[in-house]
Amino acid sequence: KQEVTQIPAALSVPEGENLVLNCSFTDSAIYNLQWFRQDPGKGLTSLLLIQSSQREQTSGRLNASLDKSSGRSTLYIAASQPGDSATYLCAVRIKAAGNKLTFGGGTRVLVKP
Amino acid sequence: EAQVTQNPRYLITVTGKKLTVTCSQNMNHEYMSWYRQDPGLGLRQIYYSMNVEVTDKGDVPEGYKVSRKEKRNFPLILESPSPNQTSLYFCASSPPVLGLAYNEQFFGPGTRLTVL
């Protein structure tokens, strides 16, 4: 059974510092991995999608890497801003489970001004 | 605007009173799914639909029903809600599968359900 873990569960950084968020998964037979942002009491916003054949994806200040063989993905957010404060979730889609996403528990980020 | 909508956004009800949470997408997506989010348990899939009239159970289907009569709509039905179904519910959709690559899922804003 696929398990997805995000450590740490919470992170606090001063404004301007780079953020590094980790995601690990136990089954490397994935189709893709998706990073989401969730604001308190709100829905999920898709940030980046990395296909299993890709090593990384970039969007603005965000960069996500994928190492399938070691079961890891890292989301980098450059020059953090208070508006980046949110919970970040990673989710993997595995080959044995159709289009289902298996989510990690999330990392709650606070960027202090 | 391309989006997934859910209604209602907030609902407080009592045990045993049937309810339906609607989900609609305007992106012509074939795949739709329901998840629930609970503290300490994360997001878990309830039901999913690969296409019209095709639905299947996810990880936590007990106490829920779904239907997919039209491509754009995927309602979640709680025939007899119980307090353990108090949760934050999300509907999601994604485009058709292209080869072996599954596309990203788009999520609705969520429905916060409280069952007393």
Describe the secondary-structure layout.
The complex is a heterodimer of chains A (113) and B (116).
Chain A: E1 4-5, E2 10-14, E3 19-25, E4 30-38, E5 44-51, E6 56-59, E7 62-67, E8 72-77, E9 86-94, E10 101-103, E11 107-112
Parallel strand pairs in A: 2-11
Antiparallel strand pairs in A: 1-3, 3-8, 4-5, 4-9, 6-7, 7-8, 9-10, 9-11
Chain B: E1 4-7, E2 10-13, E3 19-25, E4 31-38, E5 42-51, E6 54-57, E7 65-66, E8 76-78, E9 87-94, E10 106-107, E11 111-115
Parallel strand pairs in B: 2-11
Antiparallel strand pairs in B: 1-3, 3-8, 4-5, 4-9, 5-6, 7-8, 9-10, 9-11
Describe this structure in words.
The complex is a heterodimer of chains A (113) and B (116). By secondary structure, chain A is mainly beta. Helix content of chain A is 0%, strand content 58%. Chain A is globular and about 45 Å long. Chain B is an all-beta fold and 116 residues long. Chain B is 0% helix and 49% strand. In chain B, the strands form two sheets. In chain B, strands 2, 4, 5, 6, 9, 10 and 11 form a seven-stranded mixed beta sheet that branches. A four-stranded antiparallel beta sheet of chain B has the order 1-3-8-7, with no helix packed on it. In chain B, a hairpin with a 2-residue loop joins strand 5 and strand 6 (54-57). The chains are: A mainly beta (113), B mainly beta (116).
